[in-house]
Amino acid sequence: MQKDLFINIHSHHKPKLMNEFVLRNAYLSLSSESIQNFPYAVSVGLHPWHLQQMTVNECTDKLIELASSEKVMAIGEIGIDRAIDTPVQKQLTYFEAQLNIARALQKPVIIHAVKSYGDLVPFLKKTKVPFIFHQFQGNEQQAKELLKYNAFLSFGKNLFEPKSEQTFKTVPLENIFLETDTSHHLHIDDIYRKAAELKKMHIDELKSIVFHNFATLKTS
């Protein structure tokens, strides 16, 4: 894997650039055969929005089946969303079950968190696998709290919003990732360009740092 690639840590789309390495979000409804044939890496997990699709046991059985593939580099996106109607306790049950599989397989987790950073801190404290908070929307204080436990914070289109701009400037380079998530209009090089501008550094230097962060995930 080349160090000059644009690492896109979370996307719902196929790579759009020749020099892009994407970790694409896949779904538990896919077969292990189809995932194995993808020409890119994926993460798999049951999103808190979709818990009605299967029972906890069905979820864990399917996740174990899919996550054993070498193409699956992370578990996710999983997490807690306090902006939806699904009871938080139910979300926690599914989250813990999937987190246990990530622990067993020693794979990082892509975290979906909405108004729930505090709920996830106890898991950060006791879990050894890397946590990547995708599309981080928290403030500087919330970022500081998560960084105490070596979390990674991933930013995307929100870098073009004043609140996230300011938070991003305070996050150490060794704790950042960049992503496109569901964006159709912004490519990963657009995100890197904005991030490099905010960090006052050359884009090639930023690519090297994010590449190193990604390599760290694989050796944690």
Chart the SSEs and their pairings.
Layout: E1 6-11, E2 20-25, H1 32-36, E3 41-44, H2 56-67, E4 72-81, H3 88-105, E5 109-114, H4 117-126, E6 131-133, H5 140-147, E7 152-155, H6 162-170, E8 176-178, H7 188-199, H8 203-219
Parallel strand pairs: 1-2, 2-3, 3-4, 4-5, 5-6, 6-7, 7-8
Helix pairs in contact: 2-3
Overview in brief:
The protein has helices at residues 32-36, 56-67, 88-105, 117-126, 140-147, 162-170, 188-199, 203-219; strands at residues 6-11, 20-25, 41-44, 72-81, 109-114, 131-133, 152-155, 176-178.
Overall outline: globular
Order of helices and strands: EEHEHEHEHEHEHEHH
Poorly predicted runs are: none
Largest sheet composition: 8 strands, parallel
> Could you give the count of β-strands?
8
Provide structural commentary:
The chain is an alpha/beta fold. It contains 8 helices and 8 strands. The chain has helices at residues 32-36, 56-67, 88-105, 117-126, 140-147, 162-170, 188-199, 203-219; strands at 6-11, 20-25, 41-44, 72-81, 109-114, 131-133, 152-155, 176-178. Strands 1-2-3-4-5-6-7-8 form an 8-stranded parallel β-sheet, sandwiched between helices. α1 links the parallel β2 and β3. α2 (56-67) runs parallel beside α3. The two termini are 18 Å apart.
Keywords summarizing the entry:
eight-stranded parallel β-sheet, 8 helices, alpha/beta, globular, single chain, 220 residues
